[in-house]
Amino acid sequence: MNKFWNWAVNEETGEDSLELKGPIAEESWWGDEVTPKMFKAELAKRNGKNITVWINSPGGDVFAASQIYTALMEHTGHVTVKIDGYAMSAASVVAMAGTKTMMSPTAILMVHNPWGIAMGDAGEMEHMAEVLSEVKESIINAYEIKTGLTRKEISKIMDAETYMNAKKALEHGFIDEILYTDESETQPSYAYSRMAVFNSLRDKIDADHAKVRADPPEAPEDTSVLKAKLLLLTKL
């Protein structure tokens, strides 16, 4: 059996990495008892440990993605999702399971409406439409939890089959951070700088007020004296 996932250990951090490469459940998953059990058993061995999930997948079986998403959400350790290539369709659902979801600046995330193949009479076609509608709602659930967008907003994004680069995905809330950037530090740094300027100005004003109180300026000269000086200047 060709697995679409692979486990590795980061020698520097000691954390386990789960690599999801290629189509999700290309051979089988739905109706297959072996593959889901194998995945869950391998994940259970790492329960309580922090893991990193690397995703580079065009998507695949939405039911497989649902079980993987749920398994990762149930994982008691910290789950960091890193999209290094692309997370499309069902793979984007898995990406929503990250405690923190991150994208490479060159990666792509794509969401769209579910689709399927149906054969039969009009009743079968209508039934398929109802099924796809419910599947869409289930996918929206995952996006809604992660992004905080309304269901209507998410539905429109899916209807349009939206491709998102890292910045757009971050803007819509599908990810939490862009890899290899300091954006997470930029805002606090800016806030600190603004506060530092404010404090510096306030300290200067307080110091000036203290100086005035300690050494008040001399009283202005009598106006007659000023007039005499002015008259002297005009005669020179």
Fold and architecture overview:
This protein is an alpha/beta fold and 236 residues long. It folds into two domains: 177 residues, 2-enoyl-CoA Hydratase, Chain A, domain 1, CATH 3.90.226.10; 45 residues, no CATH class. The chain has eight helices and eight strands, in the order E-E-H-E-H-E-H-E-E-H-H-E-H-E-H-H. Helix 1 runs parallel beside helix 2. The longest helix has 32 residues. The termini are far apart. The relative contact order is 0.09. About 6% of the residues have low confidence.
In short:
This protein has helices at residues 34-44, 62-74, 90-95, 122-147, 151-159, 166-172, 183-214, 223-235, and strands at residues 5-9, 16-21, 51-57, 79-88, 100-103, 108-111, 162-164, 177-178.
What is the mean predicted local confidence, pLDDT?
82
Structural class: alpha/beta
First-residue to last-residue Cα separation: 108 Å
Give the CATH superfamily of the largest domain.
2-enoyl-CoA Hydratase, Chain A, domain 1
Report the principal-axis shape. Answer: globular
In percent, how helical is the residue content?
40-55%
Largest sheet: 8 strands, mixed
CATH topology of the largest domain: 2-enoyl-CoA Hydratase, Chain A, domain 1
Domain module tally: 2
Rounded to an integer, what's the Rg over CA atoms? Answer: 31 Å
Residues in β-strands, percent: 15-25%
Number of helices: 8
Order of helices and strands: EEHEHEHEEHHEHEHH
Tally of strands: 8
CATH top level label of the largest domain: Alpha Beta
CATH architecture title of the largest domain: Alpha-Beta Complex
The parts where pLDDT drops under 50 for at least 5 residues are 184-198
